[in-house]
Amino acid sequence: MSPRKRHRRASELKANAPVFAALGDPTRLALVAKLCRGQPYSISQLTEGSRLTRQAITKHLRVLEGVGIVHSVRAGRESMYKFDPQPIEELKQYLELVSKQWDEALSRLKAFVES
Amino acid sequence: MANDRIEKRIELKAPISRVWRALTDYREFGQWFRVKLDGPFVPGEVSRGHITYPGYEHLKWEAVVQKMEPERLFSFTWHPYAIDPNKDYSKETPTLVEFRLEKTPTGTLLLLTESGFDKIPSDRRLEAFRMNDGGWTEQMKNIENHVAQKTSSQGV
Questions:
Q1: Residue of B nearest to A6 (CA)
Q2: Are B47 and B26 in contact (CB under 8 A)?
Q3: B22-57 confidence digits (pLDDT tens)
Q4: Which of A39, A46, A65, B118 has a CA 20 to 30 Å removed from the CA of A2?
Q5: How far apart (Å, rounded) are the C-alpha atoms in residues B148 and A8?
Q6: Distances (CA, A) of A43 to A40, A51, A54, A63, A65
Q7: A11 touches chain B (CB under 8 A)
Q8: pLDDT > 90: percent of chain B
Q9: In whole angstroms, what is the distance from residue B26 CA to residue B46 CA?
Q10: Which pLDDT belongs to residue B68?
Q11: What letter does residue A55 receive in the DSSP assignment?
Q12: How far apart are CA A64 and CA A57, in angstroms?
């Protein structure tokens, strides 16, 4: 990996600060790890095997929902929670796009002043 | 400010005065940036124009010139990806683009920074991205092809 590419990666990581802040908690990280398996989970399923209360789990899920990496869908009387990788991907792609646009513009500038 | 910025550095085999002119003369800037500007850059004033890239001529270009320190620093603020003609971007926090020049034995070192992405609320950033995705993907492909052709024919 080139230094520039590495640098670009670093700024992308910073760009995702809110998402990473939301993940910077062992309980939420564990929740995401479970939700990453693909299928939606109910709060009861997520509370199972955890020492936390339903209310505590709900609170953590709200934080994850807030940054958009978890979505809830109503299934009858229960809410089911699903992992959504989109925000992380889109933030990365957004900065990559702006970055790429500059690469192209600067290469045109280079050709322009060196000709 | 340290959050969320894009930084580029590029060595140009041209004198610093040449690079300064390419950056700050609005006609020269327009040629490589692919934008037709209405008039010269003036610090503190809005620079207006429109994109000249084929198929995107309906898009406006707007920036506020910040600093022009001869052969050292040229900067402006703008709204990156403000490409939906029906949307008012003026309420959004702009990003700051800075071109810094340094003389080198072989020419000029150009340092480009675009900063302030962290001030754009992430939901709006996502919305902008979703909205513009199709158009930009297409345009990036066009630019890529064009640059590839140009570089192979020029041997740069």
A1: B7
A2: yes
A3: 999 999 999 999 999 999 999 999 999 998 877 777
A4: B118
A5: 22
A6: 10, 13, 7, 14, 13
A7: yes
A8: 47
A9: 13
A10: 98
A11: H
A12: 11
Q: Read off the CATH number of the domain in which A45 is found.
A: 1.10.10.10
Residue whose tokens read 């270009």 = B61
Give the residue numbers spanning the domain of A60.
3-114
Q: Alpha helix locations (H) across chain B?
A: 16-24, 26-33, 122-154
Element (H, E) at A66: helix A54-66
Residue range B91-95: mean pLDDT, rounded:
79
Q: What is the pLDDT along chain A (115 residues), one digit of tens a residue?
A: 444 444 444 444 444 557 667 777 888 888 887 887 778 899 999 998 888 899 999 999 999 888 888 888 888 888 899 888 776 666 667 777 788 889 989 999 999 999 8
Fold topology of B6-122:
Alpha-D-Glucose-1,6-Bisphosphate; Chain A, domain 4 (3.30.530)
Judged on CB neighbours under 10 Å (0-12, 13-18, 19+), B35 is buried
- Helix, strand, coil shares of chain B, percent, nearest 5, are 35, 35, 35
Whole-angstrom distance, CA of residue A5 vs CA of residue B138: 23
Taking CA atoms, B41 is separated from B14, B21, B37, B130, in Å, by: 22, 11, 9, 32
Restricting to B residues 27-86, those with a Cβ less than 8 Å away from any Cβ of A are 28, 31-34, 80-81
The tally of domains found in chain A comes to 1
Per-residue pLDDT at A1: 42
Query: Could you state, in order of their start, the residue ranges of all structural domains in chain B?
Result: 6-122
At residue A21, what are phi and psi to the nearest 5 degrees?
A: -65, -40
